[in-house]
Amino acid sequence: MQRDSYQLLAQRLDSLPNGYPPSPDGLELQLLAKLFTPEEADLAAKLRLTPETSRQIVERVGGEHK
């Protein structure tokens, strides 16, 4: 489900110092849906705050490096 990708990203963003708290009507998920495709949201939720190369990210989360 696409909404799951946005929920995971929202939870990840909320864990950051500035936070991204949920709203009663889910408006924050709608905003993420405007900014990210479901695939982008899924990947963004898996990124770390420390720098990584694309190869390191692929090795950690799976996928194919081009």
Question: How would you portray this structure in words?
Answer:
With 66 residues, this protein is mainly alpha-helical. It is 59% helix and 0% strand. It has one domain (2-61). It has helices at 2-14, 27-35, 38-46, 54-61. Helix 1 (2-14) crosses helix 2 and helix 1 runs parallel beside helix 3 (38-46). The protein starts with a helix and ends in a 5-residue tail after the last helix. The model has no long low-confidence stretch (mean pLDDT 91).
How many whole angstroms does the radius of gyration measure? 13 Å
Give the mean pLDDT: 91
Number of strands: 0
Task: Write the element-wise H/E pattern from the N-terminal end onward.
Answer: HHHH
Distance between the termini: 27 Å
Structural class: mainly alpha
The major beta sheet can be summarized as:
none
State which percent range the strand residues make up: under 5%
What is this entry, summarized?
The protein is an all-alpha fold.
Question: Key features?
Answer:
66 residues; mainly alpha; 59% helix; globular
Describe the secondary-structure layout.
Elements: H1 2-14, H2 27-35, H3 38-46, H4 54-61
